[in-house]
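User: Second chain of the day. Same drill as before.
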Amino acid sequence: MAERRRRFGYDRAVGLLGGACAAAVFLFLIAPLVVLVVSSFNRDASMAFPPSGLSLRWYAEVLGSPDWQVSFRLSGILVLMVVPTTVVIGTLAAYGLAQGSFPGRRLLQGLALSPLMVPEIITALGLLYYFHGVGLINSVPGLWLAHSLVALPFVVRAVMVSAANLDPALERAATSLGAGRVRVFFTVTLPLLRPGIIAGAILAAVTSLGEVAVTALVAGANTTTVPLRIFSAVQYQLDPSMAAVSTLLMAASVVVMVIADRFARISEAL
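Assistant: Same format as last time:
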């Protein structure tokens, strides 16, 4: 009996210690975001925490600024261009790599995911030299291609998770009922890949919205995205407007993630 009580006490202590460690990790992860959000409502022109008073002046200043409006518009256009591009290419590539059986499949898989394994600054330098030669520096097409290159591996990886779990019997059943390969792909395969596709689309959008390193080297005065404008602004001034912009981007990302997970269960593909 005494041995059982000691074991129960030991298990309880281990559980409490594990819970405390997990809580400390989550607190460490979320604390910077909480500080950022709270600081965005600071009344004074300083990044103070806790704030001396609450105000929405920085949100009004950001949303009313012509420069920020141009950057928001450009970032939105890039997302609308990058997401369809990476989803189409990434879905086809992921399905072929996950379900196909051909020589060099492993090599192609490594090539498709290689931007994840290469430091981003190296990719940015390569794009800088290449785009300078073809005249794509400081252009929307150049940013579109650069962001697509960086975001594509995330789409491929997310869709591959769904593609690896496909039941081949479902596609064979559709084929046996007279459906062609194209019809099977659009009516059977794509709906089964939907969680991975939506997850990949969200990851591509978030990656494009937060891209700084590549953007800093291939953009210019006429193509300043929101993250690049934040990066440039904090080098000279640090006021709550930067926190306000970051909070708006973070809130948009969270809302899209929650809605997508509610209707497509994207957490299964992440």
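The two ends are 46 Å apart (CA to CA).

User: Great, on to the next one.
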